[in-house]
Amino acid sequence: MRLEEIKGVGKSRLETLERAGIHEIGDLILTLPSSYMDTTRTARMADAPEGECICVEGEVVRVGRPARFNGRSTVRMTVRDATGSLEIVFINQPWASEQYAAGNHAALYGRVSLMKNGARGMYCPRKVTERGILPEYRTLKEIPSKTLRNIMREALGHVDECCPETLPERIRRQWDLPDRGKALRDIHFPPDRESLDAALRRMAFEEVLYFEAGAALLRGSRREGRAFSLKAGDDDAFWGACDFPPTSAQRRVLGEIRDDMASGRAMGRLVQGDVGSGKTAVAFGAMYLAFVSGYQSAMMAPTEILARQHGESAQRILAKLGMRCEVVTGSMKASERKRVAAMAAAGEVDAVIGTHALLSGDIAFSRLGLVVCDEQHRFGVRQRGLLSSKGEGEGAQVHTLVMSATPIPRTLALILYGDLDVSVIDEMPPGRTPVRTRIVPEEKREGMLRFIRQETERGKQAYIVCPLVEENENPELRSAREEYRCLKNNGPLKDVSLGVTWGGQKEEEKQRTLSDFASGRISVLVATTVIEVGVNVPRATVMVIENAERFGLSQLHQLRGRVGRGQDESWCFLMSSPNGRLSALCRTSDGFKIAEEDLRQRGPGDFLGTRQHGQPLLPAAALGGDGRILEEAARCMEELKKEEYAPEREQILRKAEMIWAGRLDAGVLN
What domains sit in the chain, N to C, each tagged with a CATH number? Predict the structure, then answer.
């Protein structure tokens, strides 16, 4: 049966679905809900927990007329039950003043927020017209959510033929998993919470198991690599050129890299380490080992400013060892880029450090032996492969080293980077002062801003990170551009040098702003999470994170790592009402402990978030499950190695090969 034969899918909706990558009924069924609207229970208003989405009902006490401010219309009303009341604000919904009337009954669903006047309330809640656990799908233009639910209900009548079983029956029995058809029906239209949890566990288990199996196939496909002629003394020569003593963890990890490079098999290694643990020095050590073996290195960084910072560090350390280092970026003059490209192709440069510009066709190498990718989560399998392919003229594979400052629990790292061996730098250099972290409620904002003013008067700098770019994206959350305007015009920072940057800003403006902050021309930088990686400013001593409750612990820890990079005492202020989750961040600076707690609280999918381009890596896991899913799938893979599981193992590996081939072709892992 074709997609257009489904009731409710006309020509216009078919085109909308196809634009979203949905071409068959199976594609539609596997477009899983992104969240759920649970209207099965009604919460008492007095107990309404801040930050959670709940259903409330009560009497409408007051409804205001639509008011306009900054190009937006606002309707305010108050709803109460026997226990208390909530303020309700509708943004750009002027018709709300006609939908509700004082004295009427209203049932609403939304997130409870602390309003700007200190009262609890909801922004833009939805009217509850149906009770149940209702699926919410990613927005598809021209197809309302209710219509999409009806289309999905029709499509599920064909689930068994369009989405056949993928797990052997023996595996399903052993791990108590429902069959695929039932799981998909229960995910889209759960009869109760228990059925939904079981269905989510089944799909998460399947996703993780096939990811592990595919990663194992990639690991097994690693070909012959260049066998570098290396000895232990080569490490010592490198560390002797550094202007700091290495930690034992740095020495251990560089030793693991040296052994890989000398093995004759292509290295594929992930180096994990907390912010400030010295991963870059280890990467430079690997580049030196390639140099003494007669090979070139290429190091790719996610931002231009980080590439330039790495270039400066390379000149300070590697140049002393006789290495010729160059930087290539997209914004450099054509003549300069041409010069670097010619030197790399002629073998007249030993290490090229750059951004995605390294991937372009005009950059070639004479004897590329090592590829280093900094901040691994910003690059994908295909991008790594493109860079590595620049050194495969001699037949053997290039050695690959990827680095991540995002601490990941080891179980999850082995799944995410299953094609790589994992090294962990689990020791911090001596003398680093932990960043002092505090939760700051709204009423203490003014005092915090005065503290930032004092820091700038001492020549220090500060970040203020907001979850949004523009305020009207979500009125509950603070936005970077609005925050910048407010600080510039009012309060303790109005005559302090301020800057603002965000992901969608023109690249030239963004780089100029970041450079001005790095050089000290800007004292306070207001930004979105674009500054999460790629900025190293030792004079920055204060990090303010607005709406901190909306971020995962690991991301908060990443942002906190932007300060405390010098010798001065540094602070991280979490703007939020106190809660246990944020208190955990205040208690420890160990990124791996934080990552374990984040995984435990949010589950693997939410922990990972979505990729920059495309779908979540583990879409089913993003809806539910916890760290146990990862462990169970890992144990299942171990079981499959036994001879008695040979038929099931072959079935799993054949399917995994198909899935991974499709993903790589589609660029989903980029």
Answer: 41-127 (2.40.50.140), 232-263+277-404 (3.40.50.300), 436-588 (3.40.50.300)
